[in-house]
C-alpha cells in the first residue's frame, strides 16, 4: 500500500503543479521538481524511491520523449533545416562549451564536465512556445525559427548523449578505440532508424525498390496501425516506441533516445487508414499519447527526480559562485550565439534574431534526463554539480517568459533600440 500512497501524493503534486504553471506561465516541469524536493525534505516521500515508483518513472520518460518526437511534423522540420541549421549548431556548441569549461574550472573532472555540458545543451521548446503564445507571437517567422532549430538542437543533443554518455559512464573506454566503438554503435543505431524510416514503415514510396518489388506495398506500419479498423492504433505506436527504445538500449544508449526517434519517424500519413474516415486516428492517438505522457505517467519521472534534491543549506551556499558563473555564462553565450547565427546563417532581421536567442534559453526534459543519468543512475555528477545544474536550469527557464515579454515592444517596433558602433548605427528593434 505504500506504493499506492506515494503515487497518490505524486499525482496530487502533478495536479497542483499544473495549476501553478497556468497561473505563472512557467513550465510545469519546474513545479514537478520543486514538489518532489519539498515532499522528500519534509519526510512525506522517501529519499530512496520504491522499485514500483522507479519503474513507473522510467516508463514516464520513455513516453515523454516519444510524445515530443511524435508531435513533430517531419516534413516541416526538413523544410526548416536550411534556414535554421546555424542557429541549432552554434546555439548548442556555445552552451556546451561554457558548461564544460566552467565545470572543469571548478571541479576538474572531464567526465563530470561532459555530463554538465550535455545537460545544458538542449533547448526546452515547449516552454518557449507557451511563452510566445502568451504574447501572441507564436505564428511569427522567429517562432518558426525557434521551433525548427530547437528540434535540430534536440536531435543533435540526443546524438551527443548516445555517443558521449557511454564514454562518461565508463561503459566505453576513453581511448581512440573506445570512441570509435561508440561512434560505430551510434552509426549502426541511426542506420537502423533510417532503414525503418525508408523501407519498413512506408506503405508506399517513390523509391525504385517499391516498383521493382511491389509486394512491399502490402506491408508497412499503416497496416499495423490500421488493425481492427484503427481501434488499437495507440497500442500499436506505443509498442513500436517501446521496441525501438529497447533496441537503442541494446546498442548501449538510453531508451529515451530510441523513444524520441520512434516518435519522429512515425508520420501522420500512416494514420490515413480510410478515404472517408469517421475518426481522425492521428489526432485521437496523439491526444491519448500526450495525455499519458504529460498528465499522469510522464510527470512522475520529474517528481521522482525532484526527490533527489535534498535541501542542504551549506551545499547550496557553497555553490553560489558556481551557479552565478554558469548561469551568466550560458545566458550570454546562448543568446549571443543563437542571435548572431540567426542573423548570419538564417537571414533573420535583428529583432527576430534576438527573440530567437531569448527563445533558446529554456532547459527542460532532455536536460533532466541527462542529469538523471549522470547523478542518479551513474553517480558521475556530484551533489555540488547537481545543485548547480538544477539552479541554473531554474533561472534560465524563468528568464524565457520574462525576456520575451520585455523584448516584445522592440520586436513589434513600438520601442526603438539603436546601438552606435563608432559612426555606424545598428538598429536592433523593428524599423
- How is the largest sheet built, in terms of strand order? 1-2
CATH class, named Mainly Alpha
The total tally of domains equals 1
Distance between the termini: 64 Å
How big is the Rg?
22 Å
Helix-strand sequence: HHHHHHHHHHHHHHHHHHHEE
Task: Characterize the overall form.
Answer: globular
Q: Major β-sheet, in short?
A: 2 strands, antiparallel
Q: What is the correct CATH architecture? A: Up-down Bundle
**Count of DSSP strands:** 2
User: Which secondary-structure class do the elements indicate?
Assistant: mainly alpha
**Proportion in helices:** over 70%
Q: What is the average per-residue confidence, as pLDDT, rounded to a whole number? A: 83
Uncertain ranges: none
Would you tell me which CATH topology applies? Na+/H+ antiporter like fold
Pfam family, one: Na_H_Exchanger
Main location: membrane
Domain Cation/H+ exchanger transmembrane: 14-399
InterPro entries: Cation/H_exchanger_TM, Na+/solute_symporter_sf
What does this structure look like?
The chain is mainly alpha-helical. 72% of the residues lie in helices and 2% in strands. A two-stranded antiparallel ribbon has the order 1-2. It contains 19 helices and 2 strands. The protein starts with a helix and ends with a strand. It has a single domain (67-291, 320-427), classed as Na+/H+ antiporter like fold, CATH 1.20.1530.20. A hairpin with a 2-residue loop joins strand 1 and strand 2. The protein has helices at 2-24, 28-41, 51-70, 74-107, 110-119, 125-134, 141-169, 176-200, 208-212, 221-225, 233-250, 255-265, 281-296, 298-306, 313-318, 320-344, 350-359, 365-377, 383-411, and strands spanning 418-421, 424-427.
Amino acid at each position: 500500500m505504500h506504493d499506492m500512497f506515494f503515487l497518490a501524493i505524486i499525482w496530487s503534486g502533478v495536479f497542483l503543479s499544473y495549476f501553478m504553471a497556468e497561473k505563472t506561465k512557467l513550465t510545469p516541469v519546474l513545479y514537478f521538481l520543486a514538489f518532489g524536493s519539498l515532499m522528500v525534505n519534509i519526510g512525506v516521500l522517501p529519499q530512496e524511491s520504491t522499485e514500483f515508483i522507479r519503474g513507473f518513472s522510467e516508463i514516464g520518460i520513455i513516453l515523454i520523449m516519444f510524445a515530443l518526437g511524435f508531435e513533430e511534423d517531419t516534413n516541416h522540420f526538413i523544410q526548416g533545416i536550411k534556414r535554421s541549421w546555424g542557429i541549432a549548431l552554434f546555439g548548442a556548441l556555445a552552451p556546451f562549451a561554457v558548461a564544460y569549461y566552467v565545470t572543469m574550472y571548478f571541479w576538474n573532472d572531464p567526465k563530470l564536465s561532459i555530463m554538465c555540458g550535455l545537460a545544458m545543451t538542449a533547448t526546452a521548446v515547449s516552454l518557449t512556445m507557451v511563452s510566445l503564445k502568451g504574447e501572441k507571437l507564436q505564428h511569427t517567422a522567429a517562432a518558426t525559427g525557434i521551433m525548427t532549430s530547437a528540434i535540430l538542437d534536440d536531435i543533435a543533443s540526443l546524438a551527443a548523449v548516445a555517443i558521449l554518455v557511454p564514454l562518461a559512464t565508463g561503459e566505453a573506454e576513453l581511448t581512440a578505440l573506445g570512441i570509435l566503438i561508440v561512434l560505430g554503435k551510434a552509426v549502426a543505431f541511426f542506420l537502423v532508424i533510417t532503414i525503418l524510416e525508408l523501407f519498413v514503415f512506408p506503405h508506399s514510396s517513390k523509391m525504385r525498390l517499391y516498383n521493382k518489388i511491389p509486394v512491399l506495398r502490402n506491408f508497412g506500419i499503416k497496416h499495423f496501425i490500421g488493425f481492427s479498423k484503427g481501434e488499437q492504433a495507440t497500442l500499436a505506436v506505443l509498442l513500436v516506441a517501446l521496441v525501438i527504445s529497447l533496441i537503442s538500449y541494446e546498442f548501449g544508449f538510453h531508451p529515451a533516445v530510441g523513444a524520441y526517434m520512434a516518435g519522429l519517424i512515425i508520420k501522420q500519413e500512416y494514420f490515413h487508414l480510410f478515404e472517408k474516415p469517421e475518426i481522425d486516428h492521428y489526432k485521437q492517438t496523439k491526444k491519448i499519447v500526450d495525455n499519458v505522457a504529460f498528465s499522469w505517467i510522464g510527470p512522475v519521472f520529474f517528481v521522482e527526480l525532484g526527490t533527489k534534491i535534498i535541501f542542504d543549506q551549506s551545499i547550496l551556499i557553497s555553490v553560489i559562485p558556481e551557479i552565478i558563473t554558469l548561469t551568466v555564462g550560458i545566458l550570454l553565450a546562448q543568446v549571443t550565439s543563437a542571435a548572431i547565427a540567426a542573423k548570419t546563417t538564417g537571414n533573420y532581421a535583428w529583432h527576430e534574431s534576438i527573440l530567437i536567442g531569448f527563445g533558446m534559453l529554456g532547459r527542460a526534459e532532455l536536460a533532466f534526463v541527462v542529469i538523471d543519468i549522470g547523478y542518479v543512475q551513474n553517480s558521475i555528477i556530484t551533489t555540488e554539480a547537481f545543485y548547480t545544474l538544477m539552479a541554473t536550469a531554474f533561472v534560465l527557464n524563468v528568464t524565457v517568459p520574462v525576456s520575451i515579454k520585455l523584448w516584445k515592444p522592440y520586436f513589434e517596433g513600438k520601442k526603438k533600440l539603436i546601438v552606435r558602433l563608432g559612426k555606424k548605427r545598428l538598429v536592433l528593434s523593428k524599423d
